[in-house]
From TrEMBL:
Protein name according to UniProt: Rhamnulokinase family protein
Signal peptide (UniProt feature, chain positions): none
All residue ranges annotated as the Carbohydrate kinase FGGY N-terminal domain in the record: 67-240
Domain of life: Bacteria
Length: 487
């Protein structure tokens, strides 16, 4: 048949899903086979991922997906599992929001100054970069026993196939990759005492990653051989691959738990100005660079909604749309919002600290969050263009946040640019398309994007009015003495 089916395993911070993409000449259809919650668990040692529960969800999803031509896996970045010499998992992977990395970066910078680290790896400072996690784990019994480190999607691929690899787009979030070469940053690793032999060999999107083990076929009811194909295993890499843009003059914002806002470039931007603005140079498909900034994203709202006992989200957003605009804003790039818990209070505190009215009702706080996200989107889109000398005419929003029409409109208003919103399941679509491309079904990146633009429902938002009100709100946050610590 000329139409093929691909299973995309896509694990986000709050849920995992197995989607089935059907790809043929001029066709691209995505359906959900199975969705399951991703609930981190707090044990006495700290915050952990329930990786066995997630793997169970993947198996159930593959069973629900039915017979497919290949499987691809993507997830959030930076986190990993450690294996012992027998290949067995040592403990539960640590969650990137765990507190173990507090104060660790400063220790690392005493050996390799932050500026040198940026020049060599191009990675933004975030406390959870794998490099800092490894520094935090130094001397632990578990790390001492480990013979192998597999990033989350690579760990699941290993359990499905028995084969080990380190996918490059996700490896680029470890802070151990040189974005100019797409190879390890050997010097940084050596100076910081990171044993690169812990990592399995690098592999790239499109590379074969083995076939489902007989036992997995049995458990999922599939008949073999079913190949696993390497995709952009960092969910953001897959999402950027699925931005339905035309040409190069576009910015993107991948929305969900995070907002990842920036540009697709041919080469990294490694200078001091870029470091000061905390832009990251993660790797994308085909040697591209994802030049972007991490913004707290809908995490801020998810945490408030949790604190409020899960009120109806639709109603909350309708009320927020009616609430006064830009009354108070917070810096949605501030690492102070990284940890879970007490989010309404932390937002109120941030408003108080900047001398703004303190939002009180859920509607007001929700409005404050959405205005703050739009403002952070504006800043990132503007700074990325200036730092990379790469002007844009349009902002593409992809991911779960595209369902939040107020956020999309506010982002258009704040940026003073048209926003094209969709697809919502960008990561899964990018995952599917890279598999299809590896099997010769779709063309180059531009061809993938044309197919998306033709087949996926997209919504366009025009900016309303000028950007003066947004500039004024921006000044409230930058007018202070100390810049907050960025993520
Ligand atoms: C989004 C994401 C971001 C990464 C963060 C932590 O899901 O992958 O790109 O910075 O999660 O891994």
């Amino acid at each position: 048949a000329s139409v093929k089916s691909y299973a995309a395993v896509d694990l986000g911070a709050s849920s995992g899903r197995v989607m089935v993409g059907r790809v043929g000449p001029g066709t691209l259809e995505l359906t959900e086979a199975h969705r399951f919650p991703n609930r981190p668990v707090r044990v006495p040692e700290g915050l952990r991922w329930d990786i066995l529960g997630l793997y169970g969800g993947v198996l159930e999803g593959l069973r629900a997906a039915g017979q497919v031509d290949s499987v691809g896996i993507d997830s959030w970045a930076v986190d990993y599992g450690l294996l012992d010499a027998d290949g067995a998992l040592l403990g539960n992977p640590v969650h990137y929001r765990d507190a173990r990395t507090e104060g660790v970066a400063e220790r690392v910078w005493a050996t390799v100054p932050a500026a040198e680290l940026y020049a060599a790896t191009g990675l933004q400072y975030a406390p959870f970069n794998t490099l800092y996690q490894l520094a935090a784990a130094r001397g632990s019994a578990q790390l001492a026993q480990a013979g192998r480190l597999l990033l989350i999607p690579d760990l699941l691929a290993y359990w499905l196939t028995g084969e080990q690899g380190t996918e490059l787009t996700n490896a680029s979030t470890t802070q151990l990759i040189d974005p100019r070469t797409g190879d390890w940053a050997y010097d940084v690793a050596a100076r910081l005492g990171v044993d690169l032999d812990l990592f399995a060999p690098l592999r790239r999107p499109g590379d074969p990653a083995g076939v489902l083990r007989p036992r997995v076929l049995e458990e999922t009811g599939l008949s073999g051989p079913v190949p696993v194909t390497t995709v952009g295993s960092h969910d953001t890499a897959s999402a950027v691959a699925a931005v339905p843009a035309d040409g190069e003059r576009f910015a993107y914002i991948c929305t969900g738990t995070w907002s990842l806002a920036g540009l697709e470039l041919d080469a990294p931007v490694l200078g001091e100005a870029s470091r000061a603005a905390n832009f990251t140079n993660e790797l994308g498909l085909d040697g591209t660079v994802r030049y972007l900034r991490n913004i707290m994203g809908l995490w801020l709202l998810q945490e408030c909604v949790r604190a409020w006992g899960n009120p109806d989200l639709g109603e909350l957003l309708r009320a927020a749309a009616e609430a006064p605009a830009l009354r108070s804003v917070v810096d949605a790039g501030d690492a102070a919002f990284l940890a879970p818990g007490h989010m309404p209070e932390r937002i109120a505190d941030a408003c108080r600290a900047t001398g703004q009215p303190v939002p009180d009702s859920p509607a007001e706080i929700t409005r404050c969050i959405l205005d703050s996200l739009a403002l952070a989107h504006r800043k990132a889109v503007a700074q990325a263009q200036a730092l990379a000398d790469h002007p844009v005419d349009v902002v593409h929003i992809v991911g779960g946040g595209t369902r939040n029409t107020l956020l999309c409109q506010l982002t258009a208003d704040a940026c003073g640019l048209p926003v094209v919103a969709g697809p919502a399941e960008a990561a899964a679509l990018g995952n599917v398309l890279v598999q299809a491309r590896a099997h010769g079904l779709v063309g180059d990146r531009a061809g993938m994007r044309r197919l998306l633009a033709r087949t996926q429902p997209l919504e366009r938002y025009e900016p309303r009015g000028g950007t003066a009100a947004w500039r004024e709100a921006e000044a409230r946050l930058t007018g202070r003495g100390a810049e907050p610590a960025a993520v």
